[in-house]
Design brief:
With 187 residues, this protein is an alpha+beta fold. It has eight helices and five strands; from the N terminus they run ββααααβββαααα. It folds into two domains: 117 residues, no CATH class; 47 residues, no CATH class. A hairpin with a 4-residue loop joins β3 and β4. α2 runs parallel beside α7 and α6 packs across α8.
Length: 187
């Protein structure tokens, strides 16, 4: 049986907090399970912080963020104003700007803008075949077509890094790229 732990799901005021949950990959939760080796691999991987970060983000915060944010194409930065209380308790607008490099630094990904973000589909599908994929290679890429260990790895990546709110069994192209890069130890 596939055994793993995810953050308790609960209903928020505006949103299901189960969206983008973190995975508990510690040795205590995965010891003597079918996924012990994959969990160890994920704990030691470049994306471990992104998988195990316990920050809960509410949809209302995301909506508020994008309502006030603007993207600067020339500098590839996101600019926004955040209202904050100063020392006297007065509301002050604080300008914040950040880019992809800042996200990479915060999530400790250890990669750069020069690293490829898209892997050729043929390479990704070939890697999936070597991982034991049993479904139709040109059909939907479903987690259920893998062994339990790889199914667990995909589950963690989809739950933690995907923008999905449903259809967690399907693996989209960008998740396929992340998993292929992870297995091949690419950035």
């Amino acid at each position: 049986m596939l055994t793993f732990s995810l953050h308790k799901r609960g209903k928020g005021k505006d949103w299901d907090k189960g969206h983008n949950v973190y995975c508990l990959l510690d040795a205590t939760n995965t010891k003597k399970t079918l996924v012990e080796e994959i969990a160890k691999f994920l704990r030691e991987s470049r994306i471990s912080k992104a998988l195990m970060d316990k920050t809960i983000v509410y949809e209302s915060h995301v909506r508020r963020f994008w309502n006030s944010a603007r993207y600067d194409k020339e500098n590839k930065m996101i600019h926004l104003a955040v209202r904050k209380k100063d020392e006297k308790g007065l509301d002050v607008d604080l300008e914040i700007k950040f880019g992809v490099g800042d996200l990479r630094r915060v999530l400790e990904l250890g990669d750069s803008d020069n690293d490829p973000t898209i892997i050729p589909e043929r390479l990704a599908k070939g890697m999936w075949c070597r991982m034991g994929f049993t479904g139709l290679i040109n059909g939907k890429m479903l987690k259920t077509s893998f062994s339990n260990a790889y199914k667990f790895m995909m589950h963690c990546v989809v739950q933690s890094l995907s923008h999905r709110k449903g259809a967690y069994d399907e693996t989209s192209d960008y998740i396929m790229n992340i998993i292929t890069s992870l297995v091949q130890n690419r950035r």
